Amino acid sequence: MPSTVIRETNYDPTTRILSVWFVPSGIRYDYEDVAPATYAAFRRASSKGRFFNEFIRDHHKYRRLDEKQKAGG
Fold this sequence. Notes:
Blueprint: E1 6-12, E2 17-22, E3 28-31, H1 36-44, H2 48-56, E4 62-65
Antiparallel strand pairs: 1-2, 2-3, 3-4
Helix pairs in contact: 1-2
């Protein structure tokens, strides 16, 4: 089910960084030390925004990337 809040995500299990692009800004935030199990549950969640707010936002350090980069680039 598409999200009205989250446009795109990318996860690197080696660095445990979850990249999230938000609607409508397209701005990317990288969240640190996200466990693989958390990312798997995030992907399965029926409401990505609700899961994000409950289990990722305010639970992980993050940084905002000024450029609106696409996943993998």
